[in-house]
């Protein structure tokens, strides 16, 4: 299918490549956008609350729920014994994630039972009354103690290898070994997890779920109810944020609501409190990177050997592909002539870590950028020079092969970085900062310009498929449905633009409808930045089929050739005539033309052999670069981001306004991950940063004081994606690395830039101050 | 009628006589009234998705302030006008300029936080013409957005600043006179209101002496002013509190006066109200108050409450102790005063007897020759709880030696606590770097801080010493501090 031929015709409202507001913007600002908790509840709706473990690792000796059942307003208490199907919600099929714990608990907060109450408050109050006896087992919650305890791995690790790293590391002129800790991250979607299950006749059940993956929720609900997939319909109109946290983590709430709803034959809504949501659901994986780098006096990398150990939590969940992607991005934008990378997906007694924007890629890339810093401080150069020296080359340079043996064919990183280097005035500002630092005893500044290269596609090849359903009704109004979900990223708007553009009609004519497993089946998660690439193409395919039928009909009716039929704005030229779009549609109906089509798309060219560590996991790469300047206070470690300049590649943007919003938002989220967002477990294995009072995501006053964001308007995807656009959800997240590195430079000024500060993430004020103290002591 | 509270909800007069004392405004709006525009993001006053405006009579004026509906109790609404996001758009669906600016600037993505942002921006727009970026950021301190990175929201605030549509359009301006008249009527009765629901009782005393009587009768009652702390006892800990005595409408507790003894601030004065007077005398204290909670919390919370609940990490107690503040407690049997620091006995224990309530505190007027500084250290600059909070008061004699020195810290012990060893080490000595350097380590005698999720003990101990260094640099005319905005910009 060739999508390169369509041109935007700016006479309609909302074609591709135009800045259109989010389709729900009016509803957002008036409070009328409906989230699941806002949907009118069916009569007699009951409410659920979790009973959770208060041990990190223990055998359950007995569970006494008498007081819970006797509490006011309690209708029922659901335990594992009430699950008619299989007590398991492991998305991997590994059966390592019980819906409700039975004989043992493996993290503090693990669900054991669910109270069903007349109101949410009844259920919540009663859930605290259980008496559970445990026998404690040894537990470990972090990477170091997992390694010390020889913790098992939750999935088989992956290794990427190319060249002769063992011998080349020994031979190179210079060598550095080190270690870096990279913290996890809570998603903090503003709308917590939620599901509402409404029982139907026979085995039927309808589940409203705040999920990025309705098909998986459908399969999981069927799995725990012991019914066929076709009895379960899962719907989601919008999420109040997802960021990966609703890829698999909604399963638990949807399944428990469904079990209760079927048992009691009443609608059941399950909205956990924020603290419970944060205690129970998985987060971004934290990593420890152990690295061994070989390079020369110029700073050119010869060989890299690194191990990425991750805190995965008590079950596998998505830890396999997440730790894989960390390795896929440990090269950041750099060519490693010889390389050996290994993952260590460690089991820990914590909630099961999961997808989060970037999906392990950011952790890999932070590691890769640390390698550059190490080299820069050894050879005494500006880290940007080391970056440029090691960038992947153009085809034919002999420097294009990744550690996973995919050729980088679409490399634009040098052009992008040089453009930003000039537009941000990087060199002069860096010089000025060095001079400032010489005369400033307490406040120090730093600046860093870091690149992003992010591989686009699910590394699980089968997931790279999508479906869409388009109807045109007799009045010419269009109904659009596809497998992608809306979590604020503007996917629905972009896909509607594709359909409006295909028929050349105003976008107002396209009705965007809630994602449901009943209309488009077997969908993939809206994840891996793939939403508009996959669903845009599938919707285009559906619209194109109907459009071709309309053209055929017009040729028959008006007795013209295909070339004489042209879709003008909101009308169709047929020979010499111009027919309004809706008139043509109505006439086609009377001629018994099918005005509905299912579209389908699968990403071409990709394949991946995990065992061999070879293939082409990615269809293409998205690029970007950011330059950040910070000030730190060397008495307290506090800091400010003074300025950030960003140049980001989204190919030929489907919607520049939405894409800029993604870039800005992702940058700030990435910056938050690396600065103030810190997860803290106590010795009992309790997560103590379980609410916004203790877990600090960025505020308006944390964003860069000067914030210049541009899209690389000259970029077009080399591959035939929808409108030659590129994915945008995840790649800009890693632009936040520039802030971490700028902080690092400010700290490095303490020792006159001769020592790599080895600033771990998140670089909280405390970590910054302690790094300052370390360098002072040297 | 004294068995109902009365308030206005958007355009409707409400008389409510069936509510639990712990029913939150957000639950009332969403569950009882199906006004689902306000969202629950955290149920603890930290995310702002539930932000609504509450209008109340202050002095002769009707003032609207953003508040967190999730921790505001219905029982605290007597005599107020509650404005939710549903009230903003016109009858035919035309957007309010604040809403339109958010649409035009692409200020929403997932949209869940958006109604809260709209209400905070509306509150700012109503009160501040052409706000600076610093003022916008202050107004948005209590609103979290996880999608946009805030830039388009700040731009929306700037874009709408110039627009002043006719009063007919703005739903509050349109009805302001009528609303004021109604609220005056409600306020004209000062009878005590008692609402019972099951075993639970909400008591809204009509006057200060009624409050004394109520507390004499129910010495175990929970006094609620801003509910920014007690709200969480309910939403998070589900702690039973009964009866609940609401005092936020008692104007006698909301007075601020200045006389020769100092600045006398009633226990019911909110941070927002206290800010102006305290900032004018002690700019450093103003900067500290501006970093307590978000705007919504400062609009609800009271300094009296911050003192009364005795938290070791409250920010105002150390700052006020260093200033030599005196506290006055009152009960049916009379009142008594004490230096503020004596009120904090140990962790979780204060010198407040059954039946007593905090009436007021008195801050001495500034001494032109003294230095004062208050430093708050937190992971995130705004809307965070202090890892530590260090406050310093210093007066030198004619020889440049330390005449008076009060140093108090929060976050370093089980109570807000003076650094007696450091103070004694400084007493009478020349205020020089050598003196300061020689006493830094005495902080280790004064404090044995804890390690928790906000900071390690090592960081707290080191930073406390460094804050003394900062204070010295400041008094030596070499201020070295990060500031996001220059003072003239703010």
Automatic annotation (TrEMBL), chain A:
SMART domains linked: Ald_Xan_dh_C
Domain Aldehyde oxidase/xanthine dehydrogenase a/b hammerhead positions: 30-138
One Pfam entry name: MoCoBD_1
Enzyme Commission number(s): 1.17.1.4
Domain of life, per lineage: Bacteria
Entries under Gene3D superfamilies matching the protein: Aldehyde oxidase/xanthine dehydrogenase, a/b hammerhead, Aldehyde oxidase/xanthine dehydrogenase, molybdopterin binding domain
Keywords: Molybdenum, Oxidoreductase
Catalytic EC class: oxidoreductase
Transport found in the keyword field: no
Statement: the UniProt record of this protein carries the keyword Oxidoreductase: yes
A GO molecular-function annotation: xanthine dehydrogenase activity
Cross-referenced InterPro entries: Ald_Oxase/Xan_DH_a/b, Ald_Oxase/Xan_DH_a/b_sf, Ald_Oxase/xanthine_DH-like, AldOxase/xan_DH_MoCoBD1, AldOxase/xan_DH_MoCoBD2, AldOxase/xan_DH_Mopterin-bd_sf, Xanthine_DH_Mopterin-bd_su
Segments passing through the bilayer: none
Name of protein: Xanthine dehydrogenase molybdopterin binding subunit
Source lineage: Bacteria, Pseudomonadati, Pseudomonadota, Alphaproteobacteria, Hyphomicrobiales
Primary gene name: xdhB
From TrEMBL, chain B:
Presence of keyword Protein biosynthesis: no
Official protein name in the record: Xanthine dehydrogenase small subunit
Domain of life of the source: Bacteria
Pfam family, one: CO_deh_flav_C
Enzyme Commission code(s) on record: 1.17.1.4
Location of the FAD-binding PCMH-type domain: 195-368
Enzyme class, UniProt record, top EC level: oxidoreductase
Cross-referenced NCBIfam families: xanthine_xdhA (TIGR02963)
Source taxonomy: Bacteria, Pseudomonadati, Pseudomonadota, Alphaproteobacteria, Hyphomicrobiales
GO molecular function: xanthine dehydrogenase activity
Keywords from the UniProt entry: FAD, Flavoprotein, Iron, Metal-binding, Oxidoreductase
Domain 2Fe-2S ferredoxin-type: 3-88
